[in-house]
Task: structure prediction
Amino acid sequence: MTNQTVCLSSCVPEGGVFRYELLPDGRLALQDHFAAAEPMYAIRRGPVIYLLLRAPFAGRAESGAQALQVQPDGSLTPLGELQPLGGTVACHLALSPNGRFLYTANYVSGNLTELPVLVDGSLGPRSRLVQHEGSSVNPRRQEGPHTHAAVFTPDGRFLCVVDLGLDQIILYAVDPQTGLGPDPAFICRAQPGQGPRHLVFSRDGSCAFCANELASSLTVYRYRDGTLEMLATQPTLPDGFTGENTCAAIRLSPDGRFVCVSNRGHDSIACFAIDGERVRLVSIAPSGGRSPRDFDFSPDGRYLLSSNEKEHTVTVLAVDPATGELALTGHEAPLASPLCVTW
Result:
């Protein structure tokens, strides 16, 4: 077994991206730290990490995006300019399959930003800003649009923008050379009040699985040629739980056999086995800390790291390769307001 590298984002003014090695026994060993104020989310494509910053511009609430170069020794250095997004509280991002465009979902402002990616991997000034309009049935959380995720369909032709405030998943056609189309290509309506947050696609691309933040549930959709069809919804909480809870992250296991959703309030991770267009609850395991905002499987699938935002820890869970069941290992790392796990 070899060590695996993970970047953990600490969303506080003096925070940044902390690089750890996940050792074969499940321990986390700190390697270095890239200082950044309030990083919200990050993804990696090859030698570049794309990082969202909550409000990096003095005196402005506007969010920003920064490209970081991963050096041969694993350390991070800025690549190109920090780019303003024209939106507030940017919380999720997606890179187009050909790597030419970066898209960010800006939660509070309810809009979507397109940035061109330059030849060296750095970001150019934004090329499009798409504003959503409307509301849904929850007067406190759905008084307006709240874009919460941007995810490409498996065929790379469409960008799914998950809007919690509208109870919609909006698909936009994306041209590989010119970027986002001007109008939605398809609008998938969730059940009123579900508050869809994040989604992932099955390994074969036939289904999408969506974590519904407000309803604490998982919905399975059939994907066909730029459309989503709702199939079934299951709770992510155990029977009899009556406390407050909101779902957060959703991830697919590396082998594509399981899909997991985190519960904030119950403070757990629900694991479902995938059987074609159906899912079956396998287990609901403690996350090891309060408010597991994000989590992800290690690349080899042996472990799962949970970023527990209100506990200020990142915990390590072992994954049973046969059943997908999760169990705390007892290993963790202290980290202020951890929001994102990026391998």
